[in-house]
Amino acid sequence: MPKEIPVPSNRTRVSPYPLRSTRTQKEPIEAQGPSQWEDVQCVICQEAPHNAILLRCFSSTNGCRAYMCDTSVRHSNCFKQYCKNNMNRVTKVMNCPYCRGEVYEAMKLHSGGRRALNAKSRSCAFENCNFSGTYSQLKNHLKADHPGFTRPLVDQWTRWTSEQTML
User: Where are the stretches annotated Disordered (predicted)?
Assistant: First the structure.
């Protein structure tokens, strides 16, 4: 029986199959430029999403894009609130807030998109506080100036009526 020639360790073996890591890797959402993130708003709090998450539903190929904040209790905490309130108890399925289709994936944005959205200026949610800054500045401000504060639950009806009275 002939001996097999060993492959030296400094040479790589060529395989007709792709590596496992490339097969399982999910495609990140690519940035098309800074103008792509100008009009993005969280579905719940209507601000630029902090640590944005994109809900991918079956209509996402047709342009349905539902972005939400994925933060702690100290901030808006929109994604966790939405999951808690809108998860179907029987089938454990979450519905898209726009098209009401089934959500099959909640995907974190790539680092470029997150950086662009977190760099947008936002104001402090505490009453009578005039602070405004980026997400990281707001995080530090809340820890320093309002240590026990947690953001109240968002009530869309109250927000809508207050906006109508301002007009």
Answer: 1-32
- Stretch 69-89: mean pLDDT, rounded? 75
HEC sequence for 98-165: CCCCEEEEEEECCHHHHHHHHCCCEECCCCCCCCEECHHHHHHHHHHHCCCCCCCCCCHHHHHHHHHH
pTM above 0.85, yes or no: no
CATH number of 38-162: 3.30.40.10
Written as six digits, the tokens of 52 are 């944005």
CB 49 within 8 A of CB 84: no
* Residue 83 vs residues 41, 69, 119, 121: alpha-carbon distances, Å: 18, 12, 26, 26
